[in-house]
Amino acid sequence: MELDFSRQLHFFWALLPEIILCTFGMVVLVAGVSGKYKDADKAPSGDPSFGTTADLGWLSLIGVLIAAGANGWLYGVKEVGQDSMIALDHFRLFANWIFLLAAALTILISFAYVYRQRLQAGEFFALILFATAGAMFMAGARDLIVIFLGLEVMSIAVYALTAFNRRDRKSAEAGLKYFLLGAFATGFFLYGIALTYGATGSTNVAVIATSVSSGAATAGLLTIAIALLVIGFSFKVSAVPFHMWTPDVYEGAPAPVTAFMSATVKAAAFIAFARVFLVAFNDSYTTWFPILWWLAAITMVSANLIALVQTNVKRMLAYSSIAHGGYLLLALTAANPTATAGMLFYLLVYTLMNIGAFAIVISVAHQAEERQYIDDYTGFGWTNPALGVFLTIFLLSLAGFPGTGGFMGKIYLLQGAAESELWWLMVILVLTTVASYWYYLRVAWLMWMKNPTSDGQHDLVITPFPMRLALVVCVGLIVYTGIFPGAALEFARASVQGLGAFGGGIVGLAP
Amino acid sequence: MMTSLLESIGYVGWVLHALIWLPILGVGLVLWGEEEVAKKVAFWWSMGVLVLSLGLWWAFDPTQGSMQMESSTPWIETWGVSYSLGIDGISLFMVLLTTLTSALAILGSFNYIKERQRAFYALMLLLQAGVVGVFVATDLMLFYVFFELTLVPMYFIVGIWGGERRIYAAIKFFLYTALGSLLMLVGILYMAFTANELLGFPTFAYADMLQVPLTGTEQLWLFTAFALAFSVKVPVFPLHTWLPDAHVEAPTPGSVVLAAVLLKMGTYGFLRFLLPLFPVAAQHTTVVYVMLVLAVIGIIYTAWVAAVQPDAKKLVAYTSVAHMGFVLLGIFALTVNGLQGGLIVMISHGISTGALFLLLGMLYERRHTRKIEDFGGIGRVAPLFATVFVLTALASIGLPGTSGFVGEFLALLGVFETHPTIAIIATLGVIFAAYYMLPMVQKIFFNALDKPENREMQDLSRREMVILAPLCALMIWIGWNPTPILERMEPSVRLVLERVQAAAPAGTLGSVLEPGSSVVIVPAPADLEASDDLDGGDRSTDDD
């Protein structure tokens, strides 16, 4: 099948996975307020994995799986030209796999949480689906306006999810904070789009690229536009110094939402970031290279240092996610096919290990927000050996230790950086990684090297069936990509083929 | 006869793989078995691996210096990473030392480890697999993976079963080592990147890396990165501070494996990677002097520190640093004698210090203290114990007729050939060794039997004798007849030295670091496949 976007229907086919997700989202939303589930939040009883609110979760999961099928089908569809509003390249499709995976895992780990916290299941799962659809719009957009639309669809859904637990003050606070700062960042982003339009006369990524490379674009205006867009994206990928919202929001939001946010929002922002900067602004590489170089360096150093002193696991993982954003910025700075493929691969692995780690955090917190401190993990490994081993694997993977997908991801990023000869940035990455060992291993040592502070400390830890399923998937894939990464690496590599010209060909620049 | 038996079962084809994967299989067996039988399963399993590895002694061809029993399978083809194993005269003894000490350490922990036995023995086997992997990997990425993998089991062994300050010691050990090795990772990636540019295909293979021409400046940078990683591991003064902590806090079997094989990974790295890959940097006058001086400081300083330790285990821990100083001295002598001496010290230290830690562990099991002053006159109630301890201590000091003497003598001889002054100063270290070791032996075993608790001291049990007998036999055998070992390592050692000397003939050392100058070692493309051996065929040396 070929799409040239001459007819409206072609857009329908190109956006099939997103449309399926939105449809399921609406069905779940309506079903959630139907008679059967209306009172479900009042009296929790029975098994959280099946029946009552769980039906809505399984329904959403089916939606995600069908959308995944549609995403697979899109591999057989070709687009004519490379300048339509909606991209149909493998870069987008790979990103879609990441979002769908993140959505499926998030749904699986939320069952018991939604149930025990008596959240409105219909709205909760529907918002997850809408946010995922928004992220997919961002990845598939080849027009700044469509990126903006996707960004807003995703962000507004996530703002609502952050504040979702209306019985929890922290959740409301986090929601408001995220909303205000997010809106502020959106302003920068929109202004950047406007100035880009002013400088090049288009919002289409392909047209902008031509305009920039031919020198037709107004240079001064373009520089300001690039700076504003960097700020807008930096908020979303939470690069230091635009990260201030992250720890508070991650801490306050319901834990499954934090897991989802740390994976999907970051991935979507990075994918769009990459498409705009590697394709549209490719020929301005020398302009944005030093900005990203410093952003990456500052993000890696400060996030890893601040994470050292965190006592709350959610905050620790928030700073860890900022640090991982720094590693990914290194890939953008390198701006070559290897680094971009490394970014895709890393985002995939990062999704698995981060959601996996959060799944266990949710379990330890009794499917609530109760036990979030690192000290609550004392002796956890010996009372729950399976979960302990899993968490250790997730932490080792986050730390980038051999035998895990996180290691392979880091090597891929470093190789990409080596091709652009960013030696100092690589050294910063490995040195900050040593710092990160400290805070990841601290959880491991409390888990295995200390005894529980009180008897029965971990008696209430429950892992219902869906969460176990998610954990097994995460651990399995992390170990698999850590030992046999070949297939995933080549897949990521093939997915960046034909994305753009890649400015990273210019090597040996100094910031 | 042995040789033909081994040939008939295709030994050389699978033995290296088996030495890595059998222990990992054992991890599964131990974990899925019963808690009570975990130690027996682990011990017999590691004994099986030991017996299997002994065949290497016969299967190894002593006339060949390059890698033997090589095999290579693509692992991550996109990056050119391969699962390639091989063994030469340098790694042969490290592998044997690993399988031997692992089995004995497991046997030695039967009484010491009372809790969480399954997890403990699983980690010991995992550690063994990782260490063997380090010594037989011939792909830089594979080497790095094994090098890092050994950290995790050791971290947990120290952290879970260790003493009072175990967590502090475990994390210090982990962070120190990781800091060095991650910088080495950047170095490895730099080399792979350069190799890809010059050879035209992605590769991490050791044999290919030897073909990569590097300028003097590049070599110095890479040398620094690699040397940092290995120096932490050795450990070289002043990076040694993690070692006493880790040794003292680790449970006995942990200390044994740490001393006997984990430290050797550092010196092995010097021999395997630093000298052959960066020959120009390795013989640069400043580098050589820095390393030699650090080695001498390590020998003398830690000997003094050891002499005042009230804790016997800490004392022995410090002597490790001193012994490794001799290894370093031997290596940077850059002579055949020096390198061989270094290697023998590595083996001898593995045996004698391993035995010392086992003996101290046995003392601790009996009296639950390691303070030297708590003992006295033990020799009267436990004569066999005292005999073995004295023999081991003498081997550690380097008394003629024991393994320690051969190694230290050769290492010092090697240094004397090139740097006589350094050799003379370092020789003082041998005297200091007697100064710290003998008083300890005297205070524990000889003085008056004045503590009532010590009167009930049991002598060596049968299990303990089984553990110590092979170690004592090796100390004496190597001391009297080191030739079979020396002749097996000599061709490989010569190959390393030839490569070092070929890179920069004497007299041009000063000029290699001038801008623009480079040691160009460009083999013809056809040679690339053909020349797997270390000296790489008709490589021409062209400086300026």
Properties at a glance:
heterodimer, A: 511 residues, mainly alpha, two-stranded parallel sheet, 21 helices, 73% helix, globular, B: 544 residues, 2 domains, two-stranded antiparallel sheet, 23 helices, 72% helix, 4% strand, disordered C terminus
Explain what you see.
Chain A is an all-alpha fold. Chain A has one domain. Chain A has helices at residues 8-14, 16-33, 35-38, 53-74, 90-116, 121-140, 144-162, 169-200, 205-214, 219-237, 245-252, 255-280, 285-307, 313-334, 337-364, 380-383, 385-399, 405-419, 423-449, 465-483, 486-495, and strands at residues 2-3, 78-79. Chain A has a two-stranded parallel ribbon with strand order 1-2. The model of chain A has no long low-confidence stretch (mean pLDDT 88). Chain B is mainly α and 544 residues long. Chain B has two domains: 1-274, no CATH class; 283-502, no CATH class. Chain B is built from 23 helices and four strands. A two-stranded antiparallel ribbon of chain B has the order 1-2. In chain B, strands 3-4 form a two-stranded antiparallel sheet. The radius of gyration of chain B is 23 Å and the shape is globular. Residues 506-544 of chain B have low confidence and may be disordered.
Widest sheet, order of strands of chain A: 1-2
Helix share bin of chain B: over 70%
Major beta sheet summary of chain B: 2 strands, antiparallel
Q: What's the alpha carbon Rg of chain B, rounded to whole Å?
A: 23 Å
Low-confidence stretches of chain A: none
Low confidence ranges of chain B: 506-544
Question: Of all protein chain pairs, which has the greatest interface, and how many residues does each chain bring to it?
Answer: A-B, 32 and 33 residues
Shape of chain B: globular
Q: What coarse outline of chain A follows from CA principal-axis ratios?
A: globular
Q: Give the strand order, joined by hyphens, for the main sheet of chain B.
A: 1-2
Structural class of chain A: mainly alpha
State the end-to-end distance of chain B.
54 Å
Number of helical elements of chain A: 21
